[in-house]
Amino acid sequence: MNAVNQRIVLLGPPASGKGTQADRLSEAFGIPHVSTGVLLRSECDRGTALGREADAATSKGLLVSDEFVVRIVANWMQEHGTRFLFDGFPRTVGQATHLDATLISLKSPLDLVILLELSDGAIRSRIRERISCLKCGATYSTSLHTHAEGDPCPRCGAVLVRRNDDASEALEQRLIVYRDLTLPVVGYYERTAPGIMHRIDAGEGSDAIFAELSRLVGNE
Ligand code: AMP
């Protein structure tokens, strides 16, 4: 049997399905799913000074500083080790180079980088219908699922809400940030690690995408 890939980065714009697919892969392959968005929101919920700083950026659709994000990821790795499915990290070339340096020092290089690609039109329409759990990060579509805003999250029981950064002004800002700061991360991996970089059309159905991702993670 082939060895399963264990250090994986999932890149993609908002609503490309990174979180949903990372959850499914985590369950299927037993690799921890780490969403920096969820880690940052839990910092905000705890009301720490860093959480307040993060919230000021997040609610406007801007990125939290590299320094802060790199620190929470380093803390996570110290506690949980170097098997991960990163969702929403790295989001800048600075974060990507920092992650590489950390993994080189741990002699545990990345195994896979996967980009989920989706058009701006599809992103906007998915976000209009999206309700989310701020606690566990699960998302639901009001057109595909029967859940509504205010319902309990089927997975963890917290309340489902519309994220304030899914409002149209913050979303437009997030799309600009994605194009200007995160798409260069794709170029960075294409230059430095072309053998592990893959692109998937995120407009396909969720099951087809999961099958393709499973093939890559399972090294088939
Ligand atoms: P997400 O849940 O991945 O959509 O992230 C929500 C928000 O958290 C983003 O719009 C950013 O403000 C912030 N955030 C999440 N991950 C990062 C990151 N790697 N670097 C900087 N900011 C981040």
Describe this structure in words.
The chain has 220 residues and is of the alpha/beta class. It has one domain (7-217): P-loop containing nucleotide triphosphate hydrolases (Rossmann fold), CATH 3.40.50. It is 48% helix and 15% strand. It has a five-stranded parallel β-sheet, sandwiched between helices. The chain has a three-stranded antiparallel β-sheet with strand order 6-5-7. A hairpin with a 5-residue loop joins strand 5 (130-133) and strand 6 (139-141). Helix 1 (18-29) packs across helix 8 (206-217), helix 2 packs across helix 3 and helix 4 (66-80) packs parallel to helix 5 (93-105). It is globular, with a radius of gyration of 17 Å. The mean pLDDT is 94. The chain binds adenosine monophosphate (AMP). Residues 14, 35-37, 40, 57-58, 61-64, 69, 88-89, 91, 95, 165, 174 line the site of adenosine monophosphate.
Shape designation: globular
CA distance, first residue to last residue: 9 Å
Kindly name the structural category. Answer: alpha/beta
Taking pLDDT < 50 over at least 5 consecutive residues as the criterion, the unreliable ranges are: none
Largest sheet: 5 strands, parallel
The fraction of residues in strands falls at 5-15%
Strands of the biggest beta sheet: in what spatial order? 2-3-1-4-8
State the domain count: 1
Q: Any idea of the CATH topology? A: Rossmann fold
What small molecules are bound in this structure? adenosine monophosphate
Estimate the helix proportion, in percent: 40-55%
User: How many H/I helical runs?
Assistant: 8
CATH top level is Alpha Beta
- The CATH fourth-level homologous superfamily: P-loop containing nucleotide triphosphate hydrolases
Oligomer: single chain
Number of beta strands: 8
Mean pLDDT: 94
What radius of gyration results from the CA coordinates?
A: 17 Å
Listing every helix as H and every strand as E from the N terminus to the C terminus, the arrangement reads EHEHHHEHEHEEEHEH
CATH-level-2 architecture: 3-Layer(aba) Sandwich
